[in-house]
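Write out the 3D structure for:
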Amino acid sequence: MQSNASSSRNNSGKKVIPFNKARKLVAISASVAIVALFLLSASPFLATPLSFAASTSSSVVRAAPPYIPGQPGATCNATIPCPMGVVDYGITPSGSTYSYTANGTYSQTYFNSLTLHGCTTTSNGKPVKGCSMSDQLNAIVEDLATCEGSLCLEGYYWTQDVFAIQSQVGTSNTFNVYIYDNIWNFTSAKSARIYVKPTGTCIDGSPFPASYPEYGCTILGKTIQVQLPFVVDMSTLTYVNSNGSAVVSFSAYIYNTATGQVYFGPEFYDTATFPPCTLCFSGFNSPVYIVGGSDPHGPNYIANDLGGIGGTESVTVPAISVSMSTDYILTGFLFPIPVPHAWSEGGTGETVSNVHMVPSYNCNLNLCEYTPGPALGVTGTDNNIPLY
């Protein structure tokens, strides 16, 4: 049940937009596909997850430096932009705390309408700053162990599955997009380098230089084009394979809800495999996603965020209408599970302006309750509120 203040606000005539039943069926079928891939890839009889289609890439995209989100209570308004989305910090709308672990995370963002400023590229082919945006699935993995020399190291890692909207094609409903991922070491407050870089199956095969603390992958060297309305499903999964190595896998699925055209996936486009931890005690290497509490770098959370495209970029969105959801995945469950509570202020360094989040409500007669499920992002002032 929502708080009295929220109930009165909703009962005062605030419009609640219903979700189309067909949209829910699409969401269910997509989530089943992702979980089916997980069950196959995490099988103890498979040393590595699924193989990927060939592609080429000319560059690796670097995300923003690790960011300590403001959490509930942070200021987000017309002059202070924030990443906007559906984020579970392990904090209820009333302020009480909780925690849980999961084997994976899952997000879905339905882009019904979107307008970006016209984008051009710089001399090195990158989009002009401030005219591109991203949808990011960000989360914290704990108890992931790897070895460096004779040391057995267990720590926290920040995983990012990123759908980047590079540009809008004129004033049309067509957008140029690509996909990438990152892993950051959150074991220290300074987000130190990953002690041993995981071996990934990135198509471009370009490792990050030693000066960067993260592992990264760009899956699509050339951009692909999508048309509104489209849906972006992403998931990240962690487990220990049959060789005793900790694994983090990234998947994506992009499709048009009007025509049924599939632009990408569903597939695990990247698998980061850490060296096996033969020096660690039995049971020491047990990676899981964690919500609630904090690691040395900041709070633990799962987030489906809208923001800039990289490097702490902020983008102003002239017009937008999206539906966003954030779930977690447990081994043995067929469907992803909605996070129990969510806030609108996200957990990445990139921010977005002019995006206003609307809570997820279930209204029966004069009684409205917060319900776990998709929340709306519409054109308006950035806000930091409980969504459910």
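The chain is about 5% helix and 40% strand.
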